[in-house]
């Protein structure tokens, strides 16, 4: 059972495991791992999945379990059209889950195989990820009531990069770590980012958006080296950061006709572990040689710093410590918990009445 600590503001902070949000899209894996005729596995929200790419290029996601005797379908075969269970040879169309053949049936059997379904989920390919719509417990399949997320791009020419890291903590700790504005000078100390000596007071404006909140458009921090590089273009630099349930942080940086955008997700693998995925696109320094491998190198180091911190934090959380959230640096975390509770309760109540100005040092 998870433990829950409540702050003075009544905000619950869960320990080893977290309550999960269903009926939404989550990235299962990178689609470059999906080859025609091959099956791949993933775990989302404690749900074992088998994924693949049909001969026509369409991707699919099924529960990795045959409805007959429960053996993982990933242990079977896939010919580009049908997934075949290795136990009794039952064949399924993977996008619908419909059974199309039960080899053991004879002419005297009255069972209609096509009335049997393995569990299949809505699955879409976006920005190099297989996004899967995960319905709530007890529902075999849920029709997606919203579009799968996609990273915003602002021109036809751009470069991209992907990063990923497993975190040994629940999704709540992963997400509030993602949005935490005060850890940068300590977790991300590096000559190419910032130092502890660079700490200064920050004032940021936030506004409510549907199922989330936005750090309103502003000039980015002057004590972060990557932002300083944009000064070579001689244009004002402006950044906007959004967080939207269940797990998505988007950042857009504009400098004249130059831009950078990123979508970062913290996805629950199980109720006590999660994974961070980053997809970024940009036309900044588009014609500079080696910019993509350099960006990936430093981006991987940045994500690794967060990963190491989460590993260290997980050791402390094993002992069920008391936890707290403070103002103003932890206000976004409080908004997240309130938004999540409103989603789980079905009230849709937003914790923000309007624009808010927050202050912290980082």
Automatic annotation (TrEMBL):
Give the GO molecular function terms: 2 iron, 2 sulfur cluster binding; dioxygenase activity; metal ion binding
> What is the organism lineage in this UniProt record?
Bacteria, Pseudomonadati, Acidobacteriota, Terriglobia, Terriglobales
Record-linked InterPro entries: Cholesterol_7-desaturase, Rieske_2Fe-2S, Rieske_2Fe-2S_sf
- Keyword Iron part of the UniProt annotation: yes
**Which residue ranges does the record assign to the Rieske domain?**
25-132
A Pfam entry, by short name: Rieske
Q: What is this protein called?
A: Aromatic ring-hydroxylating dioxygenase subunit alpha
Reading the lineage from the top rank, the first entry is Bacteria
- Which of UniProt's keywords are assigned here? 2Fe-2S, Dioxygenase, Iron, Iron-sulfur, Metal-binding, Oxidoreductase
Q: What PANTHER family is this protein classified in?
A: 3-KETOSTEROID-9-ALPHA-MONOOXYGENASE, OXYGENASE COMPONENT (PTHR21266:SF60), IRON-SULFUR DOMAIN CONTAINING PROTEIN (PTHR21266)
Q: Which organism is it from?
A: Occallatibacter riparius
